[in-house]
Amino acid sequence: MDHIKEEDNKIIAKIRDFNLKHTFDCGQCFRWNEQEDGSYIGVAHGKVLHIYEDEDTITFLNTNMTDFQNIWIDYFDFNRDYGAIKDKLTKDDNIMAQAVEHGCGIRILNQDEWETIISFIISARNFIPRIKKSVELISEKYGRFIEEYNGKKYYAFPTPEELYNKPEEELKNLNVGYRAKYIQSTTFIVKENQVDVYKLENLDREMAKKNLLRLMGVGPKVADCILLFSMRKYKAFPIDVWVKRVMEYFYFKDGATNNQIQEFAKEKYEDLGGFAQQYMFYYARELNIGK
DNA sequence: CACCAGGTAATTC
DNA sequence: GAATTACATGGT
Asked: Helices A82-90 & A94-102, crossing angle to 10 degrees?
């Protein structure tokens, strides 16, 4: 990332290995929406951001240099060298080379822990358009109003306090079905400080995961997503139906258990498991494997 | 009308 | 403990 400059209410920067569609549509986040002109508007960390892309020149609207430095560089992981990651992953692996080519502009976002927990609880046995809708509904109903931008009102994701003590029947209006009671229970546990979700990042991956698994609706796969997308545990390799299918398709002709795939990923990708998973997930969806 | 969707909790063996 | 089964909701 270089040539950062600020013009009124706008940041312009040249950023390598960053593509809006790849980053926002690769399944890691639910609050970014493509606009008619191809730009994206999203909410994160209580701010509304609008982004335009023209090859490697990226324009950030509705922000300033202070927020860019303090929030967005870290959120978008701009200080990490994704070129080096891709080189390492694709060395001696033709399949990964194709996956990386397809998802060349993916960056793993550093999202809010609490928002990521609730979002991925909702994601279980669900599908992405509905997950996005539910997260939007939760924010509109319980979150703090941020501002009106381009004629639309934007709301922050509600804090544990704001989501606390809501009747299950009310939560069901969020289109989350049977997950309403998971949200209710998890909010209770977090609000009562039985799990301090903002300190888990400081624990090692296994210990952080162990704590996450105490939350209702959080199993091994959802926990791995939370670790990877909000707690910087880049060895985490979440295995869902897509990742399982694509890994079996390319590397296990006779099928494999999740444990076998985990061991394989640990061995093959070492410290880069999370990045590898995201390239493979996005590639699997593109290939529509299993359909 | 079955079957499925970024799995997990509850139940059963 | 390891294997089944139920689970909301909306779309094909």
From this structure: 150
CB-based contact A162:A191 (threshold 8 Å): no
| CA-to-CA dists, residue A23 to A44, A70, A243, angstroms | 14, 20, 17
pLDDT tens, position by position, A148-205: 999 999 999 999 999 999 999 999 999 999 999 999 999 999 999 999 999 999 999 9
What are the DSSP calls for A92-132, one per residue? T-HHHHHHHHHTTT-------HHHHHHHHHHHTT--HHHHH
The three-class DSSP label of residue A269 is helix
Query: What is the Cα–Cα distance from A125 to A8, expressed in whole angstroms?
Result: 44
What would the mean pLDDT of A235-251 be, rounded to a whole number?
A: 96
Q: How far is the CA of A252 from the C1' of C6 (A)?
A: 31
A175 sits within 7 Å of strand C by its CB: yes
Contact (Cβ atoms closer than 8 angstroms) between residue A44 and residue A110 = no
Domains in chain A, please, with CATH?
2-79 (3.30.310.260), 113-230 (1.10.340.30), 241-287 (1.10.1670.10)
DSSP string, A121-151: HHHTT--HHHHHHHHHHHHHHHSPEEEEETT
Q: Is the CB of A177 under 7 A from strand C?
A: yes
A219 is near strand B: CB distance < 7 Å = yes
Q: State the pairing for strand pair A10-14/A2-7.
A: antiparallel
CA of A11 to C1' of C11 (A): 41
